[in-house]
């Protein structure tokens, strides 16, 4: 039996009250509830305060470069599809620096789970605007307010027909755990955009700000209905719907590689008799 | 009969099938027992332009391309205009009779009598193959293998017609002497050899973003992916490509990324990641003239310094610079072995010329080739498992994630032995030292530069990479004219060990560094590492291939 203890307890480098704590706890609880042991799971992270999360639990970890968690996670998943692969990082890392990989991952529909800490601001570099900052948001680097329209990852993912698209809020633990489990179980790419406060640099989108707005989708909601999903994805302001907004049954990327039907490539050597045949083609 | 070379150049525009027929022709020559050396030039376009496929044919091993043309196959009139000056006095221009040209070197062939225009490439090969005395059966079999059963019949008719036509002509041309029972040899270009060397070493994963001249590495792997259990992914950009390879390698697939200068520039940050995370990756940089887009389809050796220094921070690497097809195969294997053993980035530096250059080589004994088992046996590691355990060799135990209960933690930050990030400054020097100590192992496996020729030479040529053959031939020609000549060739340009070659430099009357770049990058590297200043250089940076004649001509100046 896997317990929360198996996933460890570590001292962090985060500010007291940071939204990361609740997300770290929810992810660990989801893995426990799902019965996954630490060695079965691989976390891939980028750079940022959120990207430090995998260092504060027990699992396999590859903490790579800023913006590049998706390609590393994809390469690992293709090599060993038996691994449960989670790319966990922040909004700047995933949607800014890693934007092209985000689009490519949705197109591929690789069976990995993206958990994005979205606090609408850069924490590690001390308070600049992030791709998801609301227009007009004032920072030291944007003294006249953010001029760019915010990136809506959920709407983009639905528009691109991503396999599994969810929005979560760190103030709703049980709800979030449930979404994480569904995302892990989904075969294909899963995105969970998790709203959370940054207590140091975002004085607008506070815990209370999100709590007052985040409303779970009703149990009658059909995530397979793309038109409604698009409306839910675009909803932002007085009410923000959270939950599994959209899903479909696209075939995952790995299934397009016929050689993977024979098992993972990891551990496979070189078949000399077949290589001999290959070399004969050059005679 | 004296040693004889024949230079055949097929010229035409993109879309006329000159690469297809050039390859079949070269293969027919190899199957007939001759040695070949192919140089291709083309423009950066899919249709039109002017492209060439040059085959230098020899009775003995052909080492290098050479300037000049003996048989010019002109698939269009522009080819005649562009190349007639290069024709040797006894040579021929083989072209469409309708062009109604004159001169003793003009061989007007009534192609339209043989078949439709799309078969004229086959027809011109037939004319020249019969002129050289190649057995029609061998050529026909090669056409069948190359084009497939469906396209064979029509092409065979054209081949028969063109063979028949030349029989009735009175052109003065000496056939090549037939070689009886030639040994089975392979025909392969540089990038095919890189890809096959990689497969034989255990490659299981390749990610790439298309870019000349390196797409051909990935394309060769794609061709064999199902047969050899390979995953090849076309990435959204080069940054993704190398990070895909990093993820695959971390999870246990020997991985490679092929690219060229501009794509490699995008990969530089991740090269540094492979250094600190200690992830094995083989990177193939097929050089072409820069800066930036430069000359996309031409050749140069301009990235030695770039590849040597790419990636921020301090970490170890090795750079191999194959000079032959055999070296493309074996040095790629070596790069994979070192990458796995020393857990970091290893480089293969090729160039456009070598990438596309088909040559014959002896069959490779597949039974003798070992391959890599990534990672260690999880039962053999000391507890607790520490991914970055500090060891005397600097090499830490590498396990693969998910294959045992041990947790494998890899990190781009400075980290503690267990792989978790740290800002503890007393850990930092220990980790830096650990990583750098791997350099001793890499150094112990360096391939020394190859020295050939007179021990006290009047002239010593120094070279690296693809110009090997041309330098060898230039030195050979000088020797046969009574000049004491020697060559010092680097098939590995990093790391280098001065004790292995400095005495050769000091012992020569004159040293000349031959490089396809403008600034003499190897000469500079040698000066930096040894203090020895190579004053005289032969540089070529017009985008064309270094040839023996180019070297000798520039010697005189």
CATH superfamily of the largest domain in chain B: Thiamin diphosphate (ThDP)-binding fold, Pyr/PP domains
Given this structure, which CATH class of chain A is correct?
Alpha Beta
Structural class of chain B: alpha/beta
Question: In CATH's first tier, which class of the largest domain in chain B applies?
Answer: Alpha Beta
Which spans of chain B have pLDDT < 50 for at least 5 consecutive residues? none
Q: What is the strand tally of chain A?
A: 8
Counted up, domains of chain A total 1
CATH topology of the largest domain in chain B: Rossmann fold
Sheet with the most strands, sense and barrel status of chain A: 8 strands, mixed
Give the rounded overall mean pLDDT of chain A.
97
Write the topology of this structure.
The complex is a heterodimer of chains A (283) and B (557).
Chain A lengths: L18 H15 L7 E5 L14 E4 L5 H11 L4 E7 H7 L1 H10 L4 E6 L34 H7 L4 E6 L3 H13 L4 E6 L11 H7 E3 L9 H9 L5 E8 L24 H9 L3
Parallel strand pairs in A: 1-2, 1-3, 3-4, 4-6, 5-6, 7-8
Antiparallel strand pairs in A: 5-8
Chain B lengths: L4 E10 L3 H14 L3 E7 L6 E11 L10 E6 L2 H7 L3 E10 L9 E4 L10 H13 L3 H12 L1 H19 L17 E4 L1 H12 L3 E4 L6 H14 L2 E4 L3 H14 L3 E5 L1 H17 L3 E7 L16 H6 L8 E3 L4 H18 L2 E7 H5 L2 E4 L46 E3 L15 H18 L5 E4 L5 E6 L3 H13 L4 E6 L1 E3 L7 H6 L2 E6 L5 H10 L5 E4 L8 H9 L1
Parallel strand pairs in B: 1-4, 4-5, 5-6, 8-9, 8-10, 10-11, 11-13, 12-13, 17-18, 17-20, 20-21
Antiparallel strand pairs in B: 1-3, 2-3, 7-14, 12-19, 16-18
Helix pairs in contact in B: 1-3, 1-4, 3-5, 4-5, 6-7, 6-11, 8-9, 14-17
How would you concisely characterize the structure shown here?
The complex is a heterodimer of chains A (283) and B (557). Chain A is α/β, with parallel strands linked by helices. Chain A contains nine helices and eight strands.
């Amino acid at each position: 039996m896997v317990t929360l203890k198996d996933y460890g307890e570590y001292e962090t480098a985060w500010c007291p009250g940071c939204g990361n704590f609740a997300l770290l706890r929810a992810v660990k609880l989801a893995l426990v509830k799902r019965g996954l042991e630490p060695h079965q799971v691989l976390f891939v992270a980028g750079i940022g305060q959120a990207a430090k999360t995998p260092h504060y639990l027990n699992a396999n970890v590859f903490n790579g470069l800023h913006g590049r968690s998706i390609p590393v996670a994809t390469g690992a998943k293709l090599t060993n599809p038996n691994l449960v692969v989670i790319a966990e990082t922040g909004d700047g890392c995933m949607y800014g620096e890693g934007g092209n990989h985000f689009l490519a991952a949705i197109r591929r529909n690789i069976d990995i789970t993206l958990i994005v800490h979205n606090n609408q601001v850069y924490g590690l570099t001390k308070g600049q605007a992030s791709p998801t900052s609301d227009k007009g948001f004032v920072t030291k680097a944007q003294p006249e307010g953010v001029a760019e329209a915010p990136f809506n990852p959920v709407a983009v993912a639905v528009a691109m027909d991503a396999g599994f698209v969810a929005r979560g809020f760190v103030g709703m633990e049980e709800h979030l755990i449930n979404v994480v489990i569904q995302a892990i179980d989904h075969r294909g790419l899963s995105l969970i955009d998790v709203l959370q406060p940054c207590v140091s640099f975002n004085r607008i989108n506070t815990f209370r700000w999100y709590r007052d707005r985040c409303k779970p989708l009703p149990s009658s909601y059909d995530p397979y209905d793309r038109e409604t999903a698009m409306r839910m994805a675009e909803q932002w302001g007085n009410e923000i719907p959270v939950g599994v907004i959209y899903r479909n049954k696209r075939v995952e990327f790995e299934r397009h590689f016929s050689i993977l039907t024979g098992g993972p490539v990891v551990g496979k050597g070189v078949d000399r008799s077949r290589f001999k045949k290959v070399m004969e083609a050059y005679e | 009969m004296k040693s004889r070379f024949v230079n055949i150049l097929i010229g035409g525009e993109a879309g006329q099938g000159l690469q297809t027929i050039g390859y079949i022709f070269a293969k027919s020559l190899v199957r007939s027992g001759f040695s070949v050396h192919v140089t291709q030039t083309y423009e950066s376009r899919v249709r039109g332009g002017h492209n060439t496929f040059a085959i230098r044919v020899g009775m003995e091993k052909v080492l290098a391309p050479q300037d000049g043309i003996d048989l010019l196959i002109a698939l269009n009139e522009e080819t005649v205009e562009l190349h007639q000056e290069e024709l040797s006095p006894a040579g021929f221009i083989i072209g469409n009779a309708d062009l109604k040209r004159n001169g003793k070197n003009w061989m007007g062939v009534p192609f339209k009598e043989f078949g439709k225009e799309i078969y004229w490439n086959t027809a011109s090969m037939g004319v020249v193959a019969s002129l050289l005395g190649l057995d029609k059966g061998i050529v026909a079999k090669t056409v069948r293998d190359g084009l497939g059963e469906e396209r064979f019949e029509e092409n065979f008719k054209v081949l028969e017609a063109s063979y028949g036509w030349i029989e009735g002509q009175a052109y003065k041309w000496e056939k090549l002497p037939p070689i009886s029972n030639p040994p089975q040899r392979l025909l392969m270009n540089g990038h095919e050899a890189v890809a096959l060397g990689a497969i034989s070493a255990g490659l299981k994963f390749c990610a790439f973003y298309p870019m000349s001249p390196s797409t051909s590495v990935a394309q060769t792997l794609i061709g064999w992916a199902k047969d050899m259990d390979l995953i090849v992914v076309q990435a959204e950009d080069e940054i993704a490509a190398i990070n895909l390879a990093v993820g695959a390698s971390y999870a246990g697939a020997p991985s490679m990324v092929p690219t060229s200068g501009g794509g490699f520039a995008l990969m530089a940050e991740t090269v540094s990641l492979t250094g600190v995370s200690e992830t094995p990756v083989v990177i193939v940089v097929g050089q072409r003239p820069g800066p930036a887009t430069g000359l996309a389809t031409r050749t140069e050796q301009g990235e030695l310094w770039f590849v040597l220094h790419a990636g921020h921070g301090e970490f170890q690497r090795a750079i191999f610079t194959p000079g032959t097809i055999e070296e493309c195969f074996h040095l790629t294997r070596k790069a994979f072995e070192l990458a796995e053993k020393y857990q970091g980035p290893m480089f293969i530096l090729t160039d456009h010329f070598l990438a596309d250059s088909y040559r014959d080589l002896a069959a490779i004994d597949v039974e003798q080739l070992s391959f890599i088992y990534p990672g260690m046996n999880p039962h053999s590691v000391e507890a607790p498992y520490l991914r970055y355990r500090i060891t005397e060799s600097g090499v830490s135990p590498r396990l693969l994630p998910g294959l045992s209960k041990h947790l494998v933690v890899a990190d781009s930050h400075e980290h503690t032995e267990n792989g978790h990030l740290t800002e503890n400054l007393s850990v930092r020097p220990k980790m830096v030292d650990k990583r750098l100590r791997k350099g001793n192992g890499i150094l112990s496996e360096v391939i020394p530069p190859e020295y050939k020729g007179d021990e006290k030479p009047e002239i010593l040529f120094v070279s690296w990479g693809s110009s090997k053959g041309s330098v060898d031939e230039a030195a050979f020609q000088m020797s046969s004219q009574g000049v004491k000549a020697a060559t010092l060739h680097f098939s590995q340009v990093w790391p280098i060990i001065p004790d292995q070659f400095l005495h050769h430099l000091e012992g020569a009357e004159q040293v000349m560094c031959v490089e396809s770049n403008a600034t003499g990058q190897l000469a500079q590297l040698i000066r930096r590492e040894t203090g020895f200043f190579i004053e005289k250089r032969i540089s070529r940076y017009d985008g064309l291939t270094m040839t023996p004649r180019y070297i000798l001509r520039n010697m005189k100046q």
